[in-house]
Structure formats: C-alpha cells, structure tokens
Amino acid sequence: MDKELQRDITLEKIRQDLAGAILDIGEIKYYIKSLNKDLEEIKQSQEVFQKLVMEQIEKINPNVKDIKRSIYRVERATAENWSDIADLKQKVD
Predict the structure, then answer these.
(1) Rounded distance between C-alpha atoms, residue 33 and residue 44, angstroms
(2) Coil, strand or helix: which one is 1?
(3) Separation between Cα atoms, residue 26 and residue 46, nearest integer Å
C-alpha cells in the first residue's frame, strides 16, 4: 500500500509538471506568434523605406550625371587654360 501511494504521488507530480510544461509551451507559442507579427511589421516598414530610398536615388541619379558632365567640362577648360598659359610662357621667353 505504501508503494502504491508513493507511485500515485509520483504520478500526480508528473501530471502537474506536464500540465505546467503544456502551459509553458502555450505561452511560448503565443510569444513566437507575437514575434512573427512584429517581424512582419518590421519587414513591411523596411520594404516601404527601401522603396522610398530607391525613388530618391532615381531622382538624384540624373543630377549626379549632370554634375559629372559639368566637372568634365571644367576639367577640359582648365586643361586648355594651362595649355594657353604654357604657350604664353613660351612666347615670353
């Protein structure tokens, strides 16, 4: 009888532990769902941000090309000026 009582107590403790584990698993599942929802919201906001950044880059790109063309013109003009300066120096000597 003593062994049977001890076995029943052990089984009851195992049942309680199992019930606690089941509750913990339920809480973990809820937490994971919450994290997944948060991650999805973050993903969506990042996609919106990325789209806005790409739109800004597309708007800026033509301006950058224009600036590069202007710089090339300035470089050519500067090179021609230095050439003219060299010619003038040669004429002075």
Answers:
(1) 17
(2) coil
(3) 30
Please tell me the total number of residues recorded for the chain in this structure.
93
Structure tokens belonging to residue 68: 């590069």
pLDDT tens figures, 6-16: 888 899 999 99
pLDDT tens readout for residues 27-72 = 999 999 999 999 999 999 999 999 999 999 999 999 999 999 999 9
Q: Return d(Cα 51, Cα 81) in angstroms, integer.
A: 45
This prediction has a pTM of 0.54
Task: Report the alpha-carbon distance of residue 68 to residue 76 in Å, rounded.
Answer: 12
In the three-class reduction of DSSP (H, G, I as helix; E, B as strand; rest coil), residue 93 is classed as coil
